[in-house]
Design a protein that fits this description.
InterPro entries: RVT-Znf. The protein is an all-alpha fold. It is 54% helix and 0% strand. It contains 9 helices and no strands.
Length: 181
């Protein structure tokens, strides 16, 4: 039997933890750390939607500022009519019918290329949908979906420089250009 040490105890604990298969999509990603954190919050269902803040008795209503529906993160990122228009514009029509935002990583429209690029593309869309939602929620400003897509495109063009030199950014640039409608 091996002697007990702190490191062997830690290693055995880490081995017994369930593997988070989505962690790779969050951290193996050309997006900025701030966006990865946003993705991590979303993955753990902790995006501060009105539903979550209402559940914690921080605000009085759980209604979406755009359509009045119950606003959880699923509504914000996939189902709000405002978001549906954006998905339709880029031809991701089935996005509102997905059971989880994580299924966006399986969209056939994504380039069959580097995993960092695929994750960056989805993250740019989700991040800018979230920023658009906040602009309406806190500033009363409604951003047209074309502007949200343009912001996602600009993010992707900046994040291209965060890719390792060994990764060809062509497919990322093609998608970024296709978001300018
Ligand atoms: Zn809504």
């Amino acid at each position: 039997m091996l002697p007990f040490t702190a490191s062997s105890f830690y290693a055995s604990r880490m081995d017994s933890r369930p593997i988070d298969v989505f962690a790779e999509a969050i951290w193996h990603n050309a997006a900025t750390p701030r966006c990865k954190h946003f993705l991590w919050l979303t993955h753990h269902d902790r995006l501060p939607s009105t539903a979550l803040l209402h559940r914690r008795s921080i605000i009085d209503s759980s209604a979406c500022a755009y359509c009045g529906s119950y606003e959880d993160q699923h509504h914000i990122l996939l189902q709000c009519p405002r978001t549906r228009r954006l998905w339709r514009l880029i031809g991701w029509d089935c996005a509102p019918h997905l059971t989880s935002f994580r299924d966006l990583w399986l969209m056939p429209q994504l380039p069959d290329s580097n995993a960092r690029i695929r994750s960056a593309i989805v993250t740019s869309l989700l991040w800018n949908i979230w920023k658009c939602r906040n602009n309406l929620q806190f500033n009363g400003v409604l951003t047209p979906p074309q502007m949200v897509l343009r912001a996602a495109s600009e993010d992707l063009k900046m994040w291209r420089h965060r890719l390792p030199h060994s990764v060809c950014p062509d497919s990322l640039m093609r998608i970024a250009d296709s978001f300018v409608i």
